[in-house]
Design a protein that fits this description.
4-stranded antiparallel beta sheet, about 30% helix, globular, binds flavin mononucleotide
């Protein structure tokens, strides 16, 4: 299973080719569109989100609503393209009325991208570095979610920290009604007030989200070589989300404050093996333990500031305020949704690699047989 995407932040569309999806999966397109709108939601997003209203279109790999086993081709039109067409059309552009972006933003891919790809307009870099690319992760993850549903595997996420406003007592029933996806009404209010203040100050703010996967059998992934460790693949994919600066499994960095006797997840047997705790977030030796996967990801404050930091003009080499592009203030709620879909993809990929997966029936049967085997172990 693999996918590749192409397209730009203000380009005509994001195109995705997704290979390795088992045949005979009935695709619920409304479900994919509602995942796309979850990616666009969350308190703290910029005005651009009101324009976009993403919707996926399938152009290959699905016939009579079902996957055929062939590569799936999808595209998501960018409704904001009309406002940028005069310079974002690959061939039909109007350079006379276009002003190249000459001052790279600290924190964005701008400067290093310019140097690496021998460019003289920052737009060439950020049009692809931008998180618009995560549309592809959501389309792919939303298909995987539909595969995982047939195996009773559920992935969800929530936000536990926005700019230091931290949720300590989780009340999960509030996640979906909280505009910042926080499982706490009190902290939601505090976070919203903070985001408003940060916006007034023309600044941006980061935070931490948690993503959880339930009902995954023990033994997905492997310890046998670095390339087969599932925790490593998940960590790499989550850290590749724009602005992500760290990933933790279970207690993560807090484990440094404990003795081994306090944190190793003790083994019990009651109609099958289980654990009394889940300090390692559902992984041992790169394999799932059968406990829920619990992963935390930290996202930095996003780079574009309405009160720009100092930078340098790449032509004149003079000190200049960095480029301003219409931008978000806080993306942590959206980032948590993107993390969900990255996890949906990595789990599905690992399961499809481990079990026979030409068709959905073969895959579900093989996984259920394996679950039965584990019960007898
Ligand atoms: C959902 C989401 C939305 C984002 N929106 C913006 C934005 O509006 N403006 C911005 O400067 N950065 C935004 N970013 C972050 C940049 O894309 C990112 O910082 C940049 O590509 C550099 O990559 P790095 O931070 O991983 O090093 C966003 C990130 C995410 C996850």
């Amino acid at each position: 299973m693999r996918y590749i995407s192409s397209g730009h932040s203000h380009g005509e569309k994001i195109s995705i080719i997704f290979e390795g999806v088992p045949a005979n999966l009935e695709i619920d397109i409304n479900d994919i569109n509602s995942e796309l709108s979850r990616r666009q939601s969350g308190y703290g997003r910029g005005g651009r989100m009101k324009i976009e209203h993403d919707e996926v279109k399938f152009t290959g790999g699905v016939i009579f609503s079902k996957t055929t086993g062939a590569p799936i081709a999808m595209e998501v039109i960018n409704r904001d393209y009309n406002n940028h067409q005069t310079y974002m059309s690959p061939f039909d552009y109007d350079l006379e009325n276009y002003k190249a972006v000459k001052v790279p933003r600290p924190g964005h891919a701008d400067l290093v991208g310019l140097m690496k790809y021998e460019q003289n307009d920052t737009r060439v870099v950020f049009e692809r570095a931008s998180a618009r690319e995560t549309v592809s992760r959501v389309c792919v993850g939303a298909i995987c979610k539909q595969i995982l549903k047939q195996m009773d595997i559920n992935v969800y996420s929530y936000v536990v920290n926005i700019g230091g406003v931290e949720v300590t007592h989780l009340d999960l029933k509030y996640i979906n009604e909280s505009p910042v996806r926080m499982p706490s009404l009190v902290k939601t209010k505090e976070a919203i007030e903070l985001i408003d203040q940060v916006k007034l100050n023309k600044d941006t703010i980061g935070g931490i989200c948690v993503v959880v996967a339930e009902n995954i059998p023990a033994g997905i992934g492997s310890y046998v070589s670095h390339e087969t460790k599932l925790d490593a693949k998940i960590a790499a994919n989550i850290i590749s989300i724009q602005a992500c600066k760290g990933v933790e499994f279970g207690q993560g960095f807090a484990l440094s404050n404990h003795l081994g006797s306090e944190v190793h997840d003790e083994i019990i047997y009651d109609h099958g093996f289980s654990r009394t705790s889940n300090n390692y977030g559902g992984f041992e030796g790169g394999m799932t333990t059968g406990m829920p996967l619990v992963i935390r990801a930290v996202f930095k404050p996003i780079p574009t500031l309405m009160q720009p930091l100092k930078s340098v003009n790449i032509d004149s080499k003079e000190v200049s305020p960095s480029h301003i592009e219409r931008s978000d203030v806080c993306v942590i709620p959206a980032a948590s949704v993107i993390c969900e879909h990255v996890l949906n993809y990595e789990i599905t990929k690992a399961i499809c690699e481990q079990f026979t997966s030409d068709t959905m029936k073969q895959l579900v049967t093989a996984l259920n047989d394996y679950r039965d085997y584990l019960k007898r172990f």
